[in-house]
Specification:
mainly alpha
Length: 104
Amino acid sequence: MNNLHNYRIKCTLTFGDIYGQIIAWLIVIFLSLASSLALWSSAREIYALVTVGIVLVLSLPFLLFAFVTTLLNHIEVTAVDPATESKTSTTGNISNQKPAQAIG
């Protein structure tokens, strides 16, 4: 259990990494809504609802798989030498970041 202190875990995921996946899923949602509106009539309302439900149920696992695999691909585990590692750098590179500023 003490060996866990010899590794550093860092997540390098940014919004730009999943932006394409979000856009693709939004396109799928809008296409399913367009197809349901095309099927919407007094005789085929149930088909429209079933179409949206099937598209959502079938696309959600693929979206979840894409998000999880993207997240796992952006997790870095690096070995650190505790003898050369200073205690101030264990918090990451927070001291290198600029504070948030208000616009206006």
